[in-house]
Amino acid sequence: MEPIISIKNLNKVYASGFEALKGVNLDIHKGEIFALLGPNGAGKTTLISAICGIVNPSSGEIFADGHNVVTEFRAARAKIGLVPQELTTEAFETVRSAVTFSRGLFGKPSNPAYIEKILKQLSLWEKRNAKMIELSGGMKRRVMIAKALSHEPQILFLDEPTAGVDVELRRDMWDMVRGLRDRGATIILTTHYIEEAEEMADRIGVINNGEIILVEEKSELMRKLGKRQLTLHLQSPIDSIPKELDSLPLELASDGHELIYTFDSQKEQTGIADLLRQLSKHDIDFKDLNSTQNSLEDIFVNLVRSDA
User: Fold this and answer.
1) ∠ at Cα 243 (262, 228), nearest 5°?
2) Cβ–Cβ < 8 Å for 175, 128
3) Band of residue 294 on the pLDDT scale cut at 50, 70, 90
4) Predicted local distance difference test score (pLDDT) of residue 93
5) How far apart are CA 161 and CA 167, in angstroms?
6) CA of 26: how far to CAs of 34, 60, 91, 216, 308, in Å?
7) CA 152 to CA 103: how far, in whole Å?
8) Percent of the chain at pLDDT exceeding 90
9) What phi and psi values does residue 196 have, to the nearest 5 degrees?
10) Which domains does the chain have, with CATH numbers?
11) Nearest by Cα to 216 from 288, 299, 272
């Protein structure tokens, strides 16, 4: 399958000499939700800006639905909708006129039926005649998405779409984004909320120091890098782990009441049976145990730390 976005050996060096992007190669598939994660200053915004034609690359090529974003800028940009993190709207403009105007900016003919359709999809129809100054932050963000969709793009960039949005509205936004994907849009999402990527993304990309350090199916990433932990709640606290158990991946909680054993659930031998035998041998009894898997946040932190 042809990627809807294809980035080949992309570099961006600013006049100051700062290398914002270093040899980025990335393909994004049609109809997927792709989450781009990275710490502040990692290159996320520069990469998005380069794809959207806002920043000129120093070298390399970017194609959006087959169009080179530099040499075929208008054709490429017409395929892309961008929802920036900042809420930039005219205070006294109505919702419907703001979205209609955005459509016109891309040379699209007037289509009131389509504008009505996306306003309804985004639960904005009842607010169509409201002025932007009258809207809540969450509603303004929905308007920004409607504006980005106004020219019927196939690719939608969401830069921190739920920043400053309360938890309940964030869930609504996630449902809305999944609905856009189900209707055929390709969604590229940047977020500081790791649980947002874990909840929504089909694939995860991690960028750090201007380089893509990992691209993986979310489920496969969790399978390969997500370790499991077995927590044993002890009958009686212990002061330290017996020296004979030093070779095991064991941690003792600060209060001495819990032992935490980290293991790879994909391996044939997890070592749990041997651990339990060793504990019994040392008269360490437990009253309860539970197992948990590392979250995407744990994986992300470990990846960035190892790349630093």
Assistant:
1) 5
2) no
3) low
4) 92
5) 13
6) 11, 12, 38, 11, 21
7) 8
8) 40
9) -65, -45
10) 5-223 (3.40.50.300), 227-294 (3.30.70)
11) 299
Which candidate, 118, 135, 102, places its Cα nearest to that of 176?
A: 118
Reading the block at residue 60, the tokens are: 């390399």
Beta bridge pairs of residue 64: 5, 67
Q: Which DSSP string corresponds to the chain?
A: ---SEEEEEEEEE-TTS-EEEEEEEEEE-TT-EEEEE--TTSSHHHHHHHHTTSS--SEEEEEETTEETTTTHHHHHTTEEEE-SS----TTSBHHHHHHHHHHHTTPPP-HHHHHHHHHHTT-GGGTTSBGGGS-HHHHHHHHHHHHHTT--SEEEEESTTTT--HHHHHHHHHHHHHHHHTT-EEEEE-S-HHHHHHH-SEEEEEETTEEEEEEEHHHHHHHH--EEEEEEESS--SS--GGGTTS-EEE-TTSSEEEEEE-TTSS--SHHHHHHHHHHTT--EEEEEEEE--HHHHHHHHHHHH-
Q: What distance in Å separates the CA atoms of residue 254 and residue 257, rounded to the nearest whole number?
A: 8
* Chain centroid offset of residue 225 CA: 17
Write out pLDDT tens, residues 250-288: 888 888 888 888 776 666 677 788 888 888 888 888 888
Centroid of chain to Cα 162: 11
Backbone phi and psi for residue 125, each to the nearest 5 degrees, phi listed first: -60, -40
Tokens at 134, concatenated: 């009258």
Type of residue numbered 181: R
- List, edge to edge, every strand of the sheet that includes 59-64: 19-28, 5-13, 59-64, 67-68
